[in-house]
Q: What sequence folds into this?
């Protein structure tokens, strides 16, 4: 055994890798070797800590010191001060958005303090490329228990009783799904992991695969035992190269230790896993399209029933579960269903990972018990809205979801509450919007995405989303008519009812929910030809307030079209005919004399 | 993987390598590494601590350093903190003393009283 007095964890997730954590790591290794510290301090690469926008992240144990935005040129100071003299480098510590003080230990940071990590428990804690580190944290003991002590039906019962529901969007009870597949007759069955992660705002699946790939492998083997399958596939998008690489390493290591392969634990159970790469079409995350894509055909949905549990991959009984769903399985087996069911709300058990983005101080990946209020997530964990702006809405469920207005900030987030208010859990994207966001524009943005991603197989989705997008675009351009609102609603209903797959069935949600809570914004666009948030270009006019203008001329010098004229020390004016609404004048004026309305 | 025992053996070994990262309320050995500490041989003491823990296979012990505790004439200074108990401070520690401190204090839970720094002195 090698004892190191200190472990330095350097994040090697996608976020931190792109902010150059690898350069930091290399510099650190070099300096530790130069100072002869490499025998006492160990550098460990980990997965994502969830705080990617402050990356590269570095955590020093045993103290648990949390450093953010570490650059290669900071390494020298960390080595000299912290590693040699034991004095943490203050300026690299995290500080809460609203406070002056810096926080030393990682557990005391607000962002982490309110979290409860189950699916992400190992992310940012172990080296995902060393299977022994996973085993050290009880990895593969759930598989061992299942094979030694439980019948397949007992496994299914535990998962059912735990209340685990699918984290990929639908929220279907996982144990029930497994039971269907286990009851289906078939010489060959399959376990598929959905790692397509198509929601543009979400990256929890990527983080689990990068930070804790063995958890997914172990869970898939458990699922295989439960339903009687001995082959698994992980369908992961090719845009996730680090995740793919870690998965490959993990599969290789698990095979070497005989945790995948033949006769696992000498119990006569065989299970192996292969990776299939997806090209990253949103619709390929839909389960039937995904299976078709694995079979080597164009990823288009097909009607259900038959459900995959009856006739899935190559017509064989198949279960398909999301990455995060799988990541919850080993801890449930290890700690018991009672433990899992003790977290969350009546019908949504356990925790959920959210990707916090948009107008919020702490963007990143968080995991909280189901039933946590939106207020806690946004204000305690997320650190509130930047620049003292007002919260307007939170969008959950990505392109299939909807908006939650400020009146509902105290809602306890779980599957059923979100559905009741016209949104969706989805995969856990959570985008925060403030007073500067135009809700019509947001709805248009999501519809543009789904319209673009529609596979075109069925007309309600293909043509319907196109028509809806045209109407929305018209409204944002100030050409909307009163009938547009009713037309949008009629179209939305038809598309929801008549589309073949979930993409079409949920595509109108962002429009419907903004119409429900922010109808006045639509009306302002249509009747007053105004965009209250000042986003929709066509509806804005730039104006100089004569009483505030000091006549400095700065705006005029910056206007690309010479639309501003005036005499020095007298109020300037904008010629609306020439103005192209670039916003340069507003940005430049030091006296807040330029406004847009 | 043939058996559960095999998995347990891997776990036991691996647990020790990552125990530094687990906040298990482990005893902590702190070596003062201020300027005068270092010039009085604190580095050598720190190395000796790590070596001793290594040879004894004691994984569940945290080793950290600290700055100047303000007792320069007692350097090198090593403090042992067992959670829930008062910290013990050793003065004028040498690499040779380290062995005995670890065996008596950490393994047998008997502080080596004659080397402790007496703060009333
Ligand atoms: C358009 C569309 C895209 C989807 N994308 C994903 C995805 O990226 N990842 C995912 O796990 N599930 C996705 N789903 C849900 C899957 O169809 C399926 O319900 C899920 O993988 C089942 O796993 P779970 O029960 O563990 O959530 C998508 C569904 C639709 C309709
Ligand atoms: S609903 Fe849309 S994405 Fe789904 S099958 Fe129809 S056209 Fe394709
Ligand atoms: S920059 Fe502002 S203050 Fe100066 S001329 Fe333009 S509007 Fe007036
Ligand atoms: S918005 Fe741009 S184009 Fe219009 S007046 Fe200002 S600087 Fe000129
Ligand atoms: S990738 Fe480093 S914190 Fe997310
Ligand atoms: S520098 Fe060591 S006690 Fe002052």
A:
């Amino acid at each position: 055994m090698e004892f190191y007095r200190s472990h330095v964890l350097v994040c090697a997730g996608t976020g931190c890798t792109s902010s150059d954590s690898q350069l930091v790591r290399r510099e650190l290794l070099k300096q530790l070797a130069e100072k002869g510290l490499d025998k006492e301090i160990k550098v460990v690469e980990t997965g994502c800590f969830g705080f990617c926008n402050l990356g590269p992240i570095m955590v020093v144990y045993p103290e648990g010191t949390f450093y953010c935005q570490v650059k290669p040129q900071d390494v020298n100071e960390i080595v000299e001060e912290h590693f040699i003299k034991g004095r943490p480098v203050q300026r690299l510590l995290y500080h809460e958005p609203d406070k002056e003080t810096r926080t030393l230990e990682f557990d005391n940071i607000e962002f982490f303090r309110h979290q409860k990590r189950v699916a992400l428990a190992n992310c940012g804690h172990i080296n995902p490329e060393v299977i022994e580190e996973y085993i050290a944290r009880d990895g593969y003991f759930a598989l061992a228990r299942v094979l030694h002590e439980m019948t397949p039906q007992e496994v299914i019962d535990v998962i059912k009783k735990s209340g685990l529901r699918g984290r990929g969007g639908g929220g279907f009870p996982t144990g029930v799904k497994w039971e269907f597949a286990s009851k289906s007759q078939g010489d060959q069955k399959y376990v598929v992991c959905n790692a397509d992660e198509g929601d543009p705002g979400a990256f929890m699946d990527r983080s689990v695969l990068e930070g804790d790939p063995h958890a997914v492998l172990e869970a898939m083997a458990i699922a295989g035992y439960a339903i009687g399958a001995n082959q698994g596939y992980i369908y992961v998008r090719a845009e996730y190269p680090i995740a793919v690489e870690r998965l490959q390493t993990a599969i290789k290591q698990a095979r070497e230790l005989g945790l995948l392969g033949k006769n696992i634990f000498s119990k006569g159970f065989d299970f192996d896993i292969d990776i299939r790469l997806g090209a990253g079409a949103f619709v390929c995350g839909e389960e039937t399209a995904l299976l078709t894509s694995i079979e080597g055909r164009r990823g288009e949905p097909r009607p259900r029933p038959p459900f995959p549990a009856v006739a899935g991959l190559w017509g064989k009984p198949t279960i398909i579960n999301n990455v995060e769903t799988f990541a919850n399985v080993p801890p449930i087996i290890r700690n018991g269903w009672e433990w899992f069911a003790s977290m969350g709300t009546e019908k949504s058990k356990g925790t959920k990972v959210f990707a916090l983005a948009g107008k919020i101080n702490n963007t990143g990946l968080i995991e909280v018990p189901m039933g946590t209020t939106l207020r806690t997530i946004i204000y305690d964990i997320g650190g509130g809205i930047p620049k003292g702006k007002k919260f307007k809405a939170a969008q959950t469920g990505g392109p299939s979801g909807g908006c939650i207005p400020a009146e509902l900030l105290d809602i306890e987030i779980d599957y059923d509450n979100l559905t009741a208010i016209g949104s969706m859990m989805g995969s856990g994207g959570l985008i925060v919007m403030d007073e500067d966001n135009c809700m019509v524009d947001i709805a248009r943005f999501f519809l543009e995405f789904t319209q673009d991603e529609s596979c075109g197989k069925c007309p309600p989705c293909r043509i319907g989303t196109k028509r809806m997008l045209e109407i929305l675009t018209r409204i944002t351009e100030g050409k909307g008519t009163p009938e547009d609102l009713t037309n949008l609603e009629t179209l939305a209903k038809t598309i929801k009812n008549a589309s073949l797959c979930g993409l079409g069935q949920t595509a109108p949600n962002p429009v419907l929910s903004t119409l429900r809570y922010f109808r006045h914004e639509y009306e302002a666009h249509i009747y007053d030809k105004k965009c209250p948030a000042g986003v929709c270009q066509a509806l804005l006019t730039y104006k100089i307030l004569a009483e505030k203008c000091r006549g400095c001329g700065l705006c005029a010098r910056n206007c690309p079209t010479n639309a501003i004229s005036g005499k020095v020390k007298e109020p300037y004016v904008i010629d609306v005919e020439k103005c192209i609404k670039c916003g340069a004048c507003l940005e430049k004026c030091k006296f807040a004399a330029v406004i847009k309305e | 993987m043939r058996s559960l025992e095999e998995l347990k053996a891997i776990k036991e070994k691996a647990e020790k390598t990552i125990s530094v990262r687990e906040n298990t309320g482990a005893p902590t050995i702190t070596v003062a590494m201020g300027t005068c500490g270092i010039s009085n041989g604190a580095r050598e003491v720190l190395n000796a601590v790590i070596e001793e823990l290594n040879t004894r296979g004691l994984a569940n012990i945290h080793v950290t350093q600290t700055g100047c505790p303000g007792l320069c004439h007692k350097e090198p200074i090593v403090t042992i903190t067992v959670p829930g108990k008062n910290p013990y401070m050793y003065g004028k520690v040498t690499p040779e003393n380290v062995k005995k401190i670890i065996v008596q204090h950490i393994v047998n839970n008997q502080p080596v009283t004659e080397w402790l720094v007496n703060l009333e002195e």
Summary: The mean pLDDT of chain B is 85. The domain at 23-115 of chain B is CATH 3.40.30.10 (Glutaredoxin).
